[in-house]
């Protein structure tokens, strides 16, 4: 499996659903159309929610990081490493699909 880079484009996996419950965002794995009850739920903190909401399958991680940096008035360089680490962790859990950008991205 290749490393996730800032040039990668990410979106939620087809094998997850996201639910907002009492102000918490949960990512719930599903397999073959059935919620994986024994699977691990993944709860997002405020930063994780901000990143997750921007992973739309069109933006690169670098673009996502810039948007999150603006949201939190944080240095883009610091946010970039957090976004890549977040994407790597979610991909490893099969919660995120990752691909290289195409010429249709950024439109």
Walk me through what this model shows.
The protein has 107 residues and is of the alpha+beta class. The protein has one domain: Arc Repressor Mutant, subunit A, CATH 1.10.10. It has helices at 46-54, 61-72, 76-92; strands at 9-12, 16-21, 24-31, 34-35, 42-44, 96-99. Helix 1 crosses helix 2 and helix 2 (61-72) crosses helix 3. The radius of gyration is 14 Å and the shape is globular. The model has no long low-confidence stretch (mean pLDDT 86).
Layout of strands and helices, then pairs:
Blueprint: E1 9-12, E2 16-21, E3 24-31, E4 34-35, E5 42-44, H1 46-54, H2 61-72, H3 76-92, E6 96-99
Helix pairs in contact: 1-2, 2-3
Rg (CA only):
14 Å
Number of domains: 1
Rounded average pLDDT: 86
Q: Give me the number of helical elements.
A: 3
Q: Quote the distance from N terminus to C terminus.
A: 28 Å
What is the ordering of alpha helices and beta strands? EEEEEHHHE
Q: What is the highest CATH level, the class?
A: Mainly Alpha
Helical fraction: 25-40%
Count of β-strands: 6
List keywords for this structure.
107 residues, alpha+beta, Arc Repressor Mutant, subunit A, four-stranded antiparallel β-sheet, two-stranded antiparallel ribbon, 3 helices, 36% helix, globular
């Amino acid at each position: 499996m290749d490393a996730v880079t800032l040039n990668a484009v990410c979106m939620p996996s087809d094998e997850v659903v996201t639910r907002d419950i009492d102000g918490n965002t949960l990512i719930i794995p599903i397999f073959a159309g059935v919620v994986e009850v024994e699977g691990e739920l993944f709860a997002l903190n405020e930063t994780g929610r901000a990143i997750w909401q921007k992973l739309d399958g069109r933006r690169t991680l670098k673009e996502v990081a810039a948007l999150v940096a603006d949201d939190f008035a944080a240095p883009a360089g610091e946010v970039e490493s957090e976004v890549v680490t977040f994407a790597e962790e979610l991909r490893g859990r099969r919660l995120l699909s990752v691909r290289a950008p195409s010429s249709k991205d950024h439109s």
